[in-house]
Amino acid sequence: MIKQLTSSERQGAAVLLGLLAAIGVLMAALGRTGPFGIHGLIVILFALALLFPVLSTFYEPEPDPERLTYYYDDPIKAGIVLTMAWAVFGMFMGVWVAAQLAWPNLAFDAAWSTFGRLRPTHTTGVIFGFGGNALISTSLYVVQRTSRARLAGQLSPWFVLMGYNLFCILAVTGYFMGVTQSKEYAEPEWYADLWLVIVWVSYFILYIRTLARRKEPHIYVANWYYMAFILVVAVLHIVNNIAVPISWGSAKSYTVWAGVQDAMVQWWYGHNAVAFFLTSGFLGMLYYFLPVRAQRPIFSYRLSILSFWGITFFYMWVGSHHLHYTALPHWVQNLGMTFSVMLLVPSWASAGNALLTLNGAWHRVRDDATLRFMMVAAVFYGLSTFEGSFLAIRPVNALSHYTDWTVAHVHAGVLGWVALITFGSIYTLVPSLWKRERMYSPVLVEVHFWLAIAGTLVYVFAMWNSGIIQGLMWRTYTADGTLAYSFVDSLVAMYPYYIARTFGGFLFLLGTLVGCYNIWMTVRAAPATAGRRLDVPEPDGAGMAPSPAE
Amino acid sequence: MSVEELDPVSGHRTTGHVWNGIKELDTPVPRGVLIFLIVTHIFAVTWWFVMPTWPLGTTYTKGLLDTDQRKIVEQKIVDAEAQRAPWVDRIEKASFDEILADPKMMEIVKTTGHRLFGDNCAACHRRDGKGRSNYPNLTDHDWIWGGGPEAIMQTITTGVNSSNAKSRISQMPAFGRDGMLDPGQVDNVAAYVYSLSHPDYSTPERIKQIEAGRQVFLTTCAACHGQDAKGNQEVGAPNLTDNYWIYGGDIGTIITTIHGGREGHMPTWDERLTPAQIKILATYVYSLGVENP
Ligand code: HEM
Ligand code: HEM
Questions:
Q1: Given this model, what pLDDT does residue B291 score?
Q2: What is the pTM of this model?
Q3: Backbone angles phi, psi at A167, to 5 degrees
Q4: Residues A473, A477, A479, A480, CA torsion sign
């Protein structure tokens, strides 16, 4: 892979990695044996691990200029592998955390494995590790195909991908040591945040420059969504993470926001993380891979426009529905609530647009598990946005807030929507990237599909039940005007559901492992496609057929 | 290259754009979507009129209903207190005997006591009050500080070794660590204490050690635990002759106790719970023991 880099790009890579290692040395020197110092060490190791392959091919001859007539897919391949690795890690942590809620002793009396530290390793592992790598890889794939342009540069995609994964590693290893800003989904400390800003800005520039090279007159919808995702996440990340470290040698910092403003900024960030990370980006994926796989035109261009601007505009206002019945002023809550209700229309418009696109391809949905992944994902997207708008209504939230109902809503979204659309896309992408005729085993795709569906349903139904029971137990009064149940009573009532959820999550994880095996075998052993140049900016012959890779 | 074509399945035209094979239909936005859009907007705008919603510089629109979440909660608290006032008043005024004899009041003690115990005490004493290692069982009739409702109420109010000025003080000295006894003596007196609740431990080959332990006990421990080792509720020294233990009754734990001392910590509740709540809890804890003969 490195041989594809020109010698000046190799030199650039070596310099960057040298700089990174130097930063690591500085951190280690300043932080000594504290977590900051240990992170310095991790940075050094990371830089050295990448420096090794770069230096070992340093004096190889220049790559063939013919490569420039192809798309640049090497970093995307690496990104897919990283996506699956993080999926396994993050979901394993999810199952562990779920099991801890049923059997608290599974923390084994160690500090690093307490619930409070493992929980963010799960959320970061799945959202940023799995979701983020999937978004970066697919976005770079999609932008090239829909612009018929090779990525702008060969070094910067690698910088984005590897830099981003360094951020994830710093985040997760930090939690084990107790390093956290205590802001949900923004736990990593100031130095990791700064690093992510650099990486993210490079990502944005790379994306824009590639779009600027496009040979198509129009920009396809998927790219709008990916752009919204990249741009808004940058803004959110910077605003929510403004903080002052207590010293240059310490991992600890304090946020500049205080009190109720802090809460509002955090949930403005938190909700838009859901909106632009877990929704916009994945809608980009949906808008590319679903029509390719279904071999159908998008149902309505006008609906795409309506839902894109609706989602982008309304989402910005709704963060306060996470703070209903808190110290946040009543009027802010009402504002968030009404916008959440209006948000439902563009959300359903997207889901509907996807499902109606399948008209004329339902026989494919029946026969092809990969397409079925995407179809079910669109259904779950519709379901969880309906549920979200419903939960945002204050009186409903009075019942659901702080309960497992929120967790049910979250996982209907992230398992049913985010993870399924990702798997569907990956199964379309892998044969195309590695130039295989199809996945190694369609049967295993089918097995993965059913494990994932079963896992999601068990998980979500268990949490709906437990959430509503919790909510009701917490608000039931006796005739004498005192609460009928103690908190512990409600925990005891949760026990069977927590076991069921652990089991559901385990099925989902199992499906992911099946997927990993299938991808591995596809790369190793599936039959290669014949030598026609189809998946390139300027294909041979007139036919511009996509590679549906069935 | 914009070539619009007719899609046979939907009967709509495409927009003419193609991206790597992907096309789009020019289907108009379905009427249902527009209606739905209007309905949600009507809902939202209505809400804006009746509820506080939009910021206006330093203030905000108050809405026609003039509600406010803070006012609503304050009112709800007042109402709930008024609803509870009659029986709270009765429980506060009644003596323990009267409460125990009155089925209506005992029912409140059962339900409310269960809830209060679950939320405040279960973390240490477990949900059923049976305790666990380091936290005493409250249902076993083996009381450290006394098992009458009044004594229990005092324990709850002031706590043990707590921050309360009138806290009960419990001090089991660290005889081994502070050098008052040498390790041999600690072992001996531990063997003696163990034999009190395990008579068959006094085998002929151990009898000498146990006797030596008894001598240590009489000179060093009896002041608090009593000559007969049956404890002293005045100083919170537990009975050592039964088989109920706070910290554990195996030889190893007894040696640890004598070597390092103990200072159990039970929080004070007089500022966190109301007098009526404490009284309900005392009655509740007392009745746990009565129900568990
Ligand atoms: C193997 C499957 C999974 C299992 C067993 C699992 C389990 C869990 C558990 C036990 C929690 C903590 C709930 C609590 O604190 O009460 C949680 C939270 C969360 N998980 Fe998962 N999870 C899984 C997959 C995923 C995936 C794939 C994603 C995202 C792509 C995800 C995103 C989240 C998020 C965002 C939260 C935080 C929810 C909140 O704060 O309300 N999970 N998960
Ligand atoms: C119309 C769209 C949506 C609306 C209006 C919405 C609304 C809500 C509401 C009201 C809550 C509960 C807040 C609380 O009581 O604490 C919530 C929580 C959450 N939702 Fe959604 N939701 C939507 C779509 C989604 C989707 C598609 C996903 C995932 C892909 C998602 C992920 C989450 C997460 C992760 C949380 C938990 C946040 C936390 O407390 O940690 N939501 N959402």
A1: 82
A2: 0.93
A3: -55, -50
A4: positive
* Residue A208 burial (CB count, 10 A): 14
pLDDT digits (tens, 9 = 90+) for B264-275: 999 999 999 999
Q: Nearest CA to CA, how far is B170 from chain A (Å)?
A: 29
Mean pLDDT of chain B: 94
| A288: pLDDT strictly greater than 60 | yes
Which residue in B has a C-alpha nearest to residue A535's C-alpha?
Answer: B20
Strands (E), chain B: 14-19, 22-25, 55-56, 59-60
Average pLDDT, stretch B132-158? 94
SS3 B281: helix
Fold type of domain B183-260: Cytochrome Bc1 Complex; Chain D, domain 2 (1.10.760)
A481 and chain B: CB distance < 8 Å anywhere?
Answer: yes
pLDDT, one tens digit per residue, over A35-91 is 999 999 999 999 999 999 999 999 989 999 889 999 999 999 999 999 999 999 999
Say whether pLDDT at B145 is over 80: yes
Cβ contacts (< 8 Å) between A386 and chain B: which residues? none
Q: What is the pLDDT of residue A544?
A: 45
**Residue owning tokens 């981003």:** A164
Q: What is the ipTM of this complex?
A: 0.90
**Residue A300: what pLDDT?**
95
B272 DSSP assignment = T
CA A489 to ligand 2 centroid distance, Å: 27
CATH topology (fold) of B73-163+272-290: Cytochrome Bc1 Complex; Chain D, domain 2 (1.10.760)
According to DSSP, the β-strands at A243-245 and B55-56 are unpaired
Does the domain formed by A73-524 have CATH 1.20.210.10?
yes
Residue B114 CA to residue B156 CA, distance in Å, equals 15
- For residue B14, the chain A residues in CB contact (below 8 A) are 297
Alpha-carbon span A146 to A210, nearest angstrom: 11
CA A246/CA A113 separation, integer angstroms: 26
- Whole-number pLDDT of residue B2: 58
CA distance A374 to A365: 9
Q: Report how far apart the first and last C-alpha atoms of chain B are (Å, whole number).
A: 92
- The residues near A360 (Cβ < 8 Å, ≥ 6 apart) are A296, B7, B9, B10
> Do B193 and B213 touch, CB atoms closer than 8 A?
yes
A120 CA → ligand 1 middle, Å: 9
